[in-house]
Structure to design on (146 residues):
């Protein structure tokens, strides 16, 4: 099962990547992923705190699967342990003539995927879209000041 979202940002892939990977700034602008700590390196673990649209926060420690500058950031997280409810989260930057399209999605799997997504699917979709809009606003505000 997948939750998928995207937004066009009027900036370069490099400008979007810079904000996307500046984890220390997340508490100042990000309504969904309010904190990330860890090394931006494939194979490392991150400490991630997410705030869903309903205001509840959850913490987990995904493994970074891919860090391709200006293109893709991907991690895999688990609820309790692998196989129950797993999520492969991805941010892709796709250049277009008028900017870069951020494709922000997550592929879910595991024994409880159907049950859990029935409970949090809509809130998660809304949270992805809020993240996208906040990132767009931040990047575009900075690029117009330059």
């Amino acid at each position: 099962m997948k939750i998928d979202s995207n937004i066009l940002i009027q900036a370069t892939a490099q400008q979007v990547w810079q904000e996307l990977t500046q984890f220390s700034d997340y508490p100042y602008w990000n309504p969904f992923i309010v904190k990330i700590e860890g090394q931006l390196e494939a194979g490392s673990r991150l400490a991630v705190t997410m705030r869903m649209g309903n205001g509840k926060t959850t913490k987990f420690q995904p493994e970074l699967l891919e860090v391709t500058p200006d293109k893709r950031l991907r991690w895999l997280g688990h609820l309790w342990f692998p196989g129950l409810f797993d999520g492969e989260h991805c941010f892709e930057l796709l250049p277009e003539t008028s900017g870069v399209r951020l494709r922000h999605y997550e592929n879910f799997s595991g024994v409880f995927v159907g049950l859990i997504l029935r409970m949090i699917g809509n809130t998660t979709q809304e949270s992805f879209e809020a993240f996208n809009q906040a990132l767009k606003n931040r990047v575009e505000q900075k690029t117009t000041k330059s």
About this structure: The chain has a mean pLDDT of 93. The chain has one domain: 2-145. Strands lie at 2-9, 33-37, 47-51, 57-60, 63-68, 72-78, 86-96, 99-109. The CA atoms of residues 1 and 114 lie 8 Å apart.
